[in-house]
Amino acid sequence: MKKSRVIWMAALVMLLLAGCGQNATETPQPTTPVEQPSGSNTDPSTTEPTLKKQMVTVYYSDNNVMELQKEEREITFAEDIEKYKKTLALLETPVKPDVHIPLWKDFKYHSITIDKGTLTIDADSKNQFNMGSSGETMALDALKNAFFQFPEVKEIVFLEDGKKVETLMGHVDLSEPLKRDN
After folding, report:
1. φ, ψ for residue 119 (rounded to 5)?
2. Which residues lie below 8 Å from residue 84, measured CB to CB, with a gap of 6+?
3. What are the residues whose beta carbons fall under 8 Å from the beta carbon of 145, sequence distance 6 or more?
4. pTM score, whole prediction
5. From CA 61, how far away is CA 134, in angstroms rounded?
6. Which of 8, 101, 132, 150 has a Cα at 20 to 30 A from 76?
7. What is the pLDDT at residue 170?
8. Residue 144 has what pLDDT?
9. Under 8 Å CB-to-CB from 112, ≥6 apart: which residues?
10. DSSP string of 53-94?
């Protein structure tokens, strides 16, 4: 009987010792990512927008401010409105700044919208321009050439702080939309 007690005591000690080093909380098991099936079951709020790439032509002045010079640039965008904003931004930053002078440098605007073929640029009234009438004409030609390369843009309207303008830089009449030359 003494022998069976010793065996039982040894078994009990073994069970107690085996349980002593264990945590009460479970350790997290590594999980493998579950692939979402493609189709209509995916949540649209978590899907990345499809990015489009497009080559655009933007225009700058030559060093003598006599004629427009063009540069081909690639833009990436998800929605068309981004395409217009990026094109306008490119008008400020030529690839060759030593030979191409930006005509829209430091141009600030509140918004760009497009509706039924009319691209509207709401400019900031604090913009400062010092180009003269020929410089203003060249700047507007650069802008028209850049935006009229998109077939959906039929005309360009300028606002200043949300209000209609007669002129942007003081020389060219902008009371009517800039129309695509046919």
Report:
1. -90, 120
2. 112, 114, 119, 147, 150, 153
3. 57, 59, 68, 70
4. 0.70
5. 11
6. 101
7. 79
8. 96
9. 81, 84, 85, 88, 119, 120, 121, 122
10. EEEEEEEEE-TTSSSEEEEEEEEEESSHHHHHHHHHHHTT--
